Amino acid sequence: xVSLRKRGAVYGVIGLMLCVAVYLNWSYFQTPEEMTxxxxxxxxxGSVYGEVTAVDKETADAAxxxxxxxxxxxxxxxxxxxxxxxRLSRQTARDEALSMLKETVASEDAAEGAKQDASDQITxxxxxxxxxxxxxxxxxxxxxxxxxxxxxxxTISVVVSSPENGxxxxxxxxxxxxxxxxxxxxxxxxxxxxxx
Length: 196
Prior knowledge:
The chain has 196 residues and is of the alpha/beta class. The chain has helices spanning 2-29, 37-45, 57-64, 73-77, 81-106, 112-141, 169-183; strands at 51-55, 147-151, 156-161, 190-195. A four-stranded mixed β-sheet has the order 1-4-3-2, with helices on both faces.
């Protein structure tokens, strides 16, 4: 009975963390439909590879962090502060989830089914982490200054540094191709945002 409560609590906390992460991702990167590059491209060409939105890096930094602007001035100068903070947030959430899952696997009171589910989730998270890093590396190899990728079961969100001319439909297609080749995901799951 106690193991069922612990397992339920672990799953509840993991579910809550995932919901919060999805909500925060959605709230930070939501833009009017008519402003998305992909939707403009879809009007012109009739096809689209996921959704692309523009994100103002300074606004996202101010809303998403509580850091003192004086301490982050050096990082802002080279434009990597947003991406470093996004990676740190992603890693912190993953570490917390992995910690709870590892506790379930190590628990003597947990049922074998719960241990197997936790082990499967650990493997899935580790695989997603590797895919995220490979996608980020390939995007950087295409000439973008930086990128951060979030893989969930419902979406694959990508935030890339803004090119000089802004993110174009061809950029979105190239990034989508990288993601599809690495993950095998459906292009409709891909959300590409631009950090200005």
